[in-house]
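Intended use. Records like the one below are meant for learning the mapping from a protein sequence to its folded structure. Do not use them to infer anything beyond what is encoded.
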Amino acid sequence: MKIHEKYIRRCIELGENGLGSTAPNPMVGCVIVHQDSIIGEGFTSPFGGPHAEVNAIESVEDKSLLEKATLYVTLEPCFHFGKTPPCADLIIAYQIPEVVIGLLDPHEKVGGKGIEKLKKSGCEVTIGVLEEECRAHHKRFLSFHERQRPYIILKWAETQDGFIAPEKSARSNTPEPYWITNSYSRQRVHQWRSEEQAILVGTQTVLEDNPSLTLRDWVGKHPIRIVLDRDLRIPKDFKVLDQESKSIVITQNSDANKMIKGVHYEIADFNRELATQICEILYRNSINSVIVEGGTQTLQTFIDAKLWDEARIFRGEITFGNGLVAPKISGKVKTSTKIQSDSLTLLTP
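Structure written out for the chain above:
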């Protein structure tokens, strides 16, 4: 079993290479071993491309060794046709005799069927190696399929005295961000944006900051921008409504004349519990992870509904004296680190 754990751990390391590019597919890692030597490795390609098992098998130079090899994978090989053919069929076609799996796939089209097919073909299958580690690795995919909602990360920056924005009198007349943290912390935020499928902000944040919500200080794929705009008050020339990245506006106003071509609109009842409706909308749009970046009212909506999985809270070295108070949250401190003059605390419920 220790040997199995060694190679599943390597699969997890490989799978991390797909962070931010495979969604809504899981970021699977795969290793192929012959006589305790790795002869092939792979991870899931960007969405629409080959899965980890395909890439690992393709990387094996001497394909004749596959008939005497063991394939390790973080998640059950797929059984169904999607953008690509079933990986279970490929494993059977190459007569790989042993497969070791970290975790069962909760997807309704898989759910044990891939394992069943492998076993029927005569393959020896081991399930549940480093299962908890694989669950943590696949937390976004599992949240989507097991809880029918995305994995939700709350993020904000606050001052030493607990504010996330100054009073309006301290701001420029031109809507633009007011920075609390240093440039290194801001770069970390752009790294996070590249890792998650979507980013969500409320109306007031957009009206005051006019953010683009895209990547600038990191290389990767722009997140889908989710904007709450109950009455469609955001001016049409604001950055979140441009075509640089996909935007979904959640609104209560169904007036088509106020909607912009190229922007996707979803209708919600802002008088009912909004966080639950947002989760339903994101699930419907196949979004399996989201960073909620503000403002306080939007963040507090998710906190009060107990719909969050992580909170990432920066604290800068400046003070405001007064302004917009930061959200109120309680949770377990998972990590606490320094980024030069800033501190970063990671909470879980």
